[in-house]
Amino acid sequence: MSEIRDPRLDTLVARTLRWGAYAAFMVLAATLLIAPFVEVGTASQLYRAGVLVMMATPGLRVLIALLVFLREHDYKYSLVAGGVLLILLLGSVFRIGEH
Amino acid sequence: MSLGHELVLLIVGFVAGIIGALAGVGGGIIITPLLALYFGIPLPQAIGTSLIAVITTSTASSSVHVQRHVTDIKLGLTLELATALGAAIAAYYAVYANRTFIALLFSCFMLYSAYTLISRLWKTRRDNNQGRQIPAYNPKRYPLGLAASLVAGGMSGLLGIGGGPIKVPVMYIFMEVPLMVATATSNFMIGVTAAASAFVYFRRGDVLPAVAGPLVVGVFLGSILGAKAAPKVHQKYVMILLAVIMLYLAAQMTIRALAGRIA
Q1: Is the ipTM, as predicted for this complex, more than 0.95?
Q2: Which residue range is the domain that position B235 belongs to?
Q3: Minimal CA separation from A40 to chain B, in Å
Q4: What sign does the CA torsion over A65, B61, B57, B71 have?
Q5: How far is A30 from chain B (nearest CA, A)?
Q6: Which of B26, B117, B229, B232 is the most buried (most CB within 10 A)?
Q7: How many domains, in total, are found in chain B?
Q8: pLDDT digits (tens, 9 = 90+) for B54-104
Q9: Looking at residue A82, what is its pLDDT?
Q10: Is B66's CB within 8 Å of A13's CB?
Q11: CA distance B228 to B246
């Protein structure tokens, strides 16, 4: 192994991914079912919300990893996780590079 | 979008999810050309929408791999620095890229992926003979791994794929990471890589939520069914089927690109 596996980190990351995927799936599946009975605009907004939940899930698991590393005073990997999160935030929240 | 279209997208996502889970690929390599060739969706929007399906496959399957302690989270996070950066930069500049060039590059990548799939079939058979235990390892040649990850991220941002066919061989051959760990870690990284470029495509309006919605539902259900069916299915036939599909789509995409019929 590259490092001794941290079972707590594995469990937290796995749960974040699972819950994020299920949440997005539930929103999108519900929208698919109700789409024929609601206005097009409403269905579009719900699809948009489900897609955004799915897109945010990988970033959320990086945040969880960062918090675990900080709590364990593992500054090397805190920096790595922070760097990944920064790249995601630069493209999504701060809109750097937008044309 | 009509109910009929949504059902077709659901089925496409479901089939891509099953094949992806059985063959260990993200699904983007099938979904992008299908959307562009058969749904008449312009290539940038097909790529942006496909990225959401790629995130879904990665998120659903890596939650299982992480829980089984097969994924090397620290190695994955380190390489994600390069993949996410490559993906975000490529997504920013994809808008300036010539569509014929992107279509031809995609065709080349499909040919390469078909080749790696067949060669992995041979390696998987050899590894199965060695048992399912993860041997002790220490990843080597990080600079090379980071450089390859930057390229894989760039390809992901440009083509709407996961980039596994680049990352897995590099981790396995050059970084000396066991194949099982390399595959699970690559799958884990795909979510962040695809998200880095998906946000850029989304802001530009190149993610179609009404198309992505049914696709994601199908991919999610297909991935779960595929993962459950995996032990009972002959992986060899799935990989051969996927390789044949990729060769067919690569030929179709090349013909249309050269004829200038890519939207």
Answers
A1: no
A2: 3-258
A3: 9
A4: positive
A5: 10
A6: B26
A7: 1
A8: 999 889 888 888 888 888 999 999 999 999 999 999 988 888 888 888 888
A9: 96
A10: yes
A11: 24
